[in-house]
């Protein structure tokens, strides 16, 4: 708010046109509540600031956390302003008792001096997002905050927009500073007047002493001094009250210095009263001091509302790294978190993982791309990249259940960044047991919140990899026992969204497919095994055959290497990032 007032002052000092409400809205983002929480969308704020009345929807900050036993819990860490926590917990308990919300098994308040924390445990078979939406609807976890900017102006109540509000505040500040300056000026002039008298007395000190000694009483001395030196009553009184120690030279220098400083100060005060721009400068300096002393970081985040699609244009297009772990924690980071190292280095800590968790997906995209999430059960969900919360390099990220309405037991196995849906583009899918399937991307253009079926799977088969193609690629499937098959994509005919697919590679024994790559992705296959060994082989060494064959050997598996765990098609100038089950990342040139 102070920055906005400073902007108005700057424009007035520079004789610009009046500051517009648009310029002010750029600076004042919205209310900042002491209890934090999140404001949904900017529409309510805009309305309140432009017209003086508006409704702002405020929502608690919540997080869904998976628990050890397969259940989920909702953690509430910030409440909307003026919501009573005890009353809120009572209300949730009532809703559970009256069976209005079904699926909550435990409710506890774990707040301490570190901060607020309400923990809501859920039954294993319920969708945490559904419960959360019910809580938003029926309790004060989501609240409407009414804004009416009403104030008395010249004794009359008036509803004002933000600009008028700040203008009147500035008028008030001008009034305060003017009156204060006048008061200070009076005081300074009175003191200067007395100092002038004392200086005259200093110049004629012997005569002054003689007059005072010769007078019958104080009154007579004062009258004589006033006649002799043309002083005022106040000056004569000050001379009569003067102590003997004021006779030495040091005191004289002190008086002269004080008089000089006072005259300068009087000059400044008169200049402020004479020139409004100087007055505005004083106000600006004073409120800037308040801002620097008491300003703190914003607490209330402004999120986006479902109805408020214009938010998308405000999000910058930038490259971003997205990582996702085996247990389903996802986050996005800026690219400059990582620097390149040489082969064989130790890497840097890439993520705080929980026990037995490790990063599975790691890819680069831009904030405005769609990201399609395919799950092991053959369903597909989608988000925009900017909807994934950004966090630091070592943070764990948010559980994916906060973002997607996954079904119990569902895990994400493939993630595809996508710019747009267009004809003539395909999705190529591969499953653990060597089935491949190709469908037109257009079949996936309208994905519901609750996801869509992407492929039908046999008993315990799982979808492991999905690629975005144009039907002119060679496909490589690599298995954990070191077999690889290469065939042309046109061998796989295009089928509907829910169909099953066809055999891509014939597996023997307990073998399973661990990766699918396309020849356009690079000129060599980089194959990595469980014990951190890896090699590159040019793709030209793999002969093409028909799909459904056994393929050829591509990696010699020994005790030392362990099974094949990953494959990527790479070029010489690529860099690769690998991560261990302990969460150590290394980035190295291919």
Topology:
Elements (H helix, E strand, L loop, with lengths): L1 H12 L7 H7 L10 E3 L2 H9 L1 E7 L1 E6 L5 E7 L6 H13 L6 E6 L8 E5 L5 H11 L3 E7 L1 E4 L2 E4 L2 H42 L1 H10 L3 H12 L3 H8 L8 H26 L1 H19 L6 E3 L7 H4 L4 E7 L3 E5 L14 E2 L9 E8 L3 E6 L3 E6 L13 E2 L12 E7 L7 E6 L3 E6 L11 E2 L9 E7 L4 E6 L3 E6 L13 E2 L9 E6 L5 E6 L4 E5 L13 E2 L10 E7 L4 E5 L4 E6 L1
Parallel strand pairs: 1-10
Antiparallel strand pairs: 1-2, 2-7, 3-4, 4-6, 5-6, 8-9, 11-12, 11-14, 12-17, 13-32, 15-16, 15-18, 16-21, 19-20, 19-22, 20-25, 23-24, 23-26, 24-29, 27-28, 27-30, 31-32
Helix pairs in contact: 1-11, 6-9, 6-10, 6-11, 7-8, 8-9, 10-11
Main traits of this protein?
alpha+beta; 28% strand; 590 residues; 29% helix; four-stranded antiparallel sheet; four-stranded mixed sheet; elongated
Main structural class: alpha+beta
**Helical fraction:** 25-40%
Estimated share of beta-strand residues: 25-35%
Note the main sheet. Answer: 4 strands, mixed
Radius of gyration computed on alpha carbons: 38 Å
Count of individual beta strands: 32
Number of helices, counting only DSSP H or I runs of 4 residues or more: 12
**Poorly predicted runs:** none
Any idea what the shape is? elongated
Distance between the termini: 52 Å
- Arrangement of strands in the largest sheet: 7-2-1-10
- Overall pLDDT, averaged? 89
